[in-house]
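A reminder from the course coordinator: this example appears on the midterm review sheet, so study it carefully.

Given structure:
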């Protein structure tokens, strides 16, 4: 077990790869997971109608840091919509075969479903939501007053999760990536999460928010809270967001 990381890198080298399902002519997985249409769906403000303060890119990069202490001021729906657009916004759907988004992804696979723990958002009930990126909407996953506590516990008692306005989760749908790249696709999931979270850090600065990316968590516990199976769908990364 001491060399499991090295073994992962070794066994995902190109020399070990066999033909992917795409190469075998297997139909590709859907661009987005199905959802229960009986659950409440929330329309988000359209990205092109949201006014956000201009912030020079250099200033955003130079001032970027992880923030773990937040004020009790809520964010509003415009701001949440803007953050989700920056994290995983869909700019174009190409014949139901691929999406072009605000972040890069290996082979335009975009293998993440974004979940949002809402703690302090104006006019939005607290709970767990899923971002429907193609339609730019939110759907309720579940409401539970103890969700923030459960998630904080699963993240090794990182209590600032409970004081954030929202916490954003990158949940991988592994086959969406493996369909094209086989086992090497697991590498790309982690790279893609980093690209997307950096967008969150930079975009949050323009609305007076701080961000803290979190990679320390109990995989099994956190997947259970989000109702993910831990094999085909699992959390890769999460990040808290709140007003400074």
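Designed residues:
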């Amino acid at each position: 077990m001491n060399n499991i990381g090295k073994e992962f890198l070794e066994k995902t080298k190109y020399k070990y790869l066999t033909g992917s399902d795409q190469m075998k002519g297997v139909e590709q997985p859907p661009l987005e997971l199905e959802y229960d249409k009986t659950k409440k769906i929330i329309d988000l403000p359209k990205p092109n109608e949201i006014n956000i303060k201009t912030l020079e890119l250099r200033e955003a990069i130079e001032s970027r840091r992880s923030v773990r202490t937040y004020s009790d001021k809520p964010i509003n729906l415009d701001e949440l919509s803007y953050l989700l657009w920056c994290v995983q916004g869909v700019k174009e759907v190409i014949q139901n075969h691929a999406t072009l988004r605000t972040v890069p992804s290996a082979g335009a696979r975009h293998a993440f479903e974004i979940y949002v723990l809402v703690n302090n958002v104006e006019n939005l009930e607290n709970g767990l939501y899923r971002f429907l990126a193609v339609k730019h909407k939110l759907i309720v996953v579940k409401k539970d007053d103890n969700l923030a506590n459960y998630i904080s516990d699963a993240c090794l008692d990182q209590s600032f999760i409970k004081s954030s306005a929202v916490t954003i989760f990158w949940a991988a749908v592994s086959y969406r990536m493996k369909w094209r790249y086989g086992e090497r696709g697991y590498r790309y999931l982690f790279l893609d999460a980093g690209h997307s979270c950096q967008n969150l850090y930079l975009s949050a600065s323009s609305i007076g928010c701080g961000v803290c990316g979190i990679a320390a968590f109990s995989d099994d516990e956190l997947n259970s809270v989000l109702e993910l199976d831990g094999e085909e769908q699992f959390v890769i990364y999460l990040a808290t967001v709140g007003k400074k």
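The mean pLDDT is 96. The beta strands are 41-43, 90-94, 98-101, 112-118, 127-132, 137-142, 166-173, 209-214, 233-243.
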